[in-house]
Design goal:
single chain; about 260 residues; mainly beta
Amino acid sequence: FPVTIPPSPKQCSTPVGNTTITIYEKLPPFNPKFIAKNKIKQIQGKVYNKKTGDVMRLSDDEINYYFNEQGQLIHRLEIVATNTFIDTLSEVYQYNSKGKISKKIKNIHDKFHAYSYSYDTANYVTRIETHEALLTNGDLHSPEFEMDTLIDFETMRYKTYSSTQRKKIVYNSYGNPYLDEIYYSNKEGQIVEIAKKLKITSEINETKFNYTPSNLIDSVYMYSSVTPQEIESHKYIYDKQNNLIYKKSYKNYRDWE
């Protein structure tokens, strides 16, 4: 994806009954084992929004998730309604034999882009290619695509400094490194901090993670050297069975979602 990929094949996520919060891959929080065991093919949901000082209100937004027999997410279809128009967002996922995502296709406005991922023997992402994709059947509910022009690509290399610190170096299509990502773990192997540094601007973005006694993600804090006075954070609430039931988001410790 055009998202953070783990520097280790170990997924640092929190299985919570029928949900999973995944640190690295921006996928919806579903547990494939639970989905497959219960033979779930589709999940449909409505979206509630809450502003500071207001009550929860049902929006016109709608989200649909589609799964294969292995419980893997294969299609996300989201309908977003605004005051002036209705937008449809579609994301399609394909997987390799090891269950890793090999391709993601998503629409950006009225065009589709396909992101292809190559891995090494340790399941580290080593190359991401971006292609234009053509929707061949005109159906966003059951889309079919063909790959087209290569737009861009990135490559990645990894360095391990210790059992608790790893570094990913991202190179652009010209072979020039432009981004460093350093991952810090605790003794239990949980990721506690991710630091991203752009080489050109020296901008540093940090994300820190806290965990519950049950090894679930309790909270996430995000900082930027560009706006150090601004802090974005997320708090996760679970029930007695460790199912995720609520997520609260804050800016500068003020409730905004």
